[in-house]
Specification:
This protein is mostly helical. It contains four helices and two strands; from the N terminus they run ββαααα. A two-stranded antiparallel ribbon has the order 1-2. α2 crosses α3. It is flat.
Length: about 120
């Protein structure tokens, strides 16, 4: 098994392990997956983690990226059986930089206009 974040000479990678039901939400052979609620071998366990490279860590600490991700989640994902603690980081990472720059400009313009 290789290093979690890649070889020493490679750029660090982001790795994410979401919690989920084995065989449905996560691969069947995932050692951290939980058993479906209908399984007789029900094992209650919740495991998830993220190892972020610096660029992704910076994105997840960007208030504009997080506000945009929350808006997307509230508009498109509230009716789904999804956990915001798993989906919001993925949404924040997936937002194109051009959209974030547009949002930053809009915020700066609205601050300049307000009395």
């Amino acid at each position: 098994m290789g290093p979690v974040l890649g070889a020493p000479d490679a750029a660090p990678r982001t790795r994410i392990c979401p919690a989920g039901v084995r065989g449905l939400d996560v691969p069947f052979d995932c050692p951290h997956g939980i058993e479906p609620h209908w399984s007789r071998s029900l094992l209650l366990k919740h495991h998830q983690w993220m190892a972020l490279n610096r660029a992704h860590a910076s994105r997840l600490s960007d208030p504009v990226a997080l506000r945009v991700a929350v808006a997307i989640f509230q508009e498109w994902y509230l009716g789904e059986p999804l956990c915001s603690d798993e989906v919001l980081p993925l949404l924040a990472l997936a937002i194109p930089e051009a959209i974030l720059e547009t949002e930053r400009l809009r915020n700066a313009t609205s601050r300049d206009v307000e009395p």
